Amino acid sequence: MSFYIGLLHYPVYNRKGEIIVSAITNLDLHDLARLGKTYGAKKFYVINPLTDQQDLAKSICLHWVSGHGAAYNKDRREAMSLISIASTLEESLKEIQEIEGEVPTLIATDAGKGGRQGVTYTLAREIVASNRAVMILFGTAWGIAKELIRKADYLLEPIFGVSYYNHLSVRTAAAITLDRLFSKIAEQ
User: Fold this and answer.
1) What domains lie within the chain, and their CATH numbers?
2) Which of 83, 124, 128, 130 is least buried, going by the fewest C-beta atoms within 10 A?
3) H-only helix segments in 20-120
4) 164 close to 39: Cβ distance less than 8 angstroms
């Protein structure tokens, strides 16, 4: 099992349905890196084309990987070491291909109820448990642009709770997703 996490900041939608570049947040970096480390991700790609946003992410990572934060909290250093910053999804997929020697299978996530049919968690568990390299892609803001969703090998079915409400933070959605995918594998 070889899996990677991607956090996409472009192309994503804003609340009006327009394509934007969303901002990187400190909280997303910390929580998704820790989540990735907990579930065995090889890397966590933060994907944003803006150099000022990349610089922000690099600064945060440097503090925790080699700065004062590294000495202060060794567990956080270990998790933050998973982070790799990429300008585009294609750049991150190419890097994974160089590492793994194969094009990774791309599983996109989307909270939307319409559009492309999503695969079940049962099928997705089989995919991530295989010997293939896999990237699980999460979107920020109001979700990944449909043009990119169409390019993914698979679209994971949305997370539904018990009410009509369906707008989780990316950190919450990622935690639920990885737990649904990997907790059953860990039990085997």
Assistant:
1) 2-187 (3.40.1280.10)
2) 130
3) 26-39, 51-65, 68-72, 74-80, 89-100
4) no
